Amino acid sequence: MSTKKIIKSRWFTITKIDDETYDFCEQKHWEKVHSYLLIGKKRAILIDAGIGIDDIKKEIKKVYDGPVEDVYLTHAHYDHFVGAAKFKYIHIHPNDYGWLINFPLTLDFVKNELSSNRQVFPKWFDINNYKIPKFDCILTINDNEIIDLGERKIMAILTQGHTPGHLCYYDTKKHYLFSGDQIYSGELEIFYEGTDPKKYAQSLERLLNLPINKILPGHYDLDIDVNIIKNVDDAFKKIQKEDPNFIKHGIYYFNDFSIHY
After folding, report:
1. pTM reported for the whole predicted model
2. Segment 94-126, tens digit of pLDDT
3. Contact call for residues 53 and 125 (beta carbons, < 8 A)
4. Which residues contact 111 (CB under 8 A, 6 or more apart)?
5. Taking Cα atoms as reference points, which of 138, 137, 131 lies closest to residue 53?
6. Strand stretches in the chain, DSSP E
């Protein structure tokens, strides 16, 4: 299934996956973060909301004229939740709830991360005004919980490892996997505070037997082979043979991805 780019705004590249699914990619930032609009017969939701450099809620109006009040987060890292500030309801797994209430990283650290890799910001963006938002309504979503959009059901799948409460979201009809930071083509990061390579490896087992037509990742290349899940699982098994307790920290390189723990 190919994708077709339909709109390039001043910050986002908006890609139509199908008539009910749109990708909002922050292509101009080095992290190339993806957020996804999912439209059902009754309502629409956003999976992740990006870095917050531009107003993603305003950009949604370019492809969908209905209300969008709910953001379902894959996890509580700033590059996926800061853009949710203008939405009414924020949903997160209980294990990551505390990070939204009291984000543990300093604002200076976040700004340095945003600006790394020789990032050039547009003239209309002033990083001095960048903030980590406080949300008025944070709701929890649990493992195996179903989000009913009306003739479209999305299942939350707990995939611990990148964070304690990382969730993938699975479209039970279209067989799309919104994989967040669990699976993408690039450096898979399991070295931050709260990460756990053992749990990350175990979480892959939950995804292996799902019928998946398309993986929609949290970062980088949008069109990736669905076999990447099996390839990442094989890579972890190879690493664990040499380092069962994940003690030898470093970066391990494979064909389409690397694993950093």
Report:
1. 0.96
2. 999 999 999 999 999 999 999 999 999 999 999
3. yes
4. 127, 130
5. 131
6. 4-8, 13-18, 21-25, 34-39, 44-47, 70-72, 89-92, 138-140, 146-148, 153-158, 167-171, 176-180, 187-189, 214-217, 251-253, 258-260
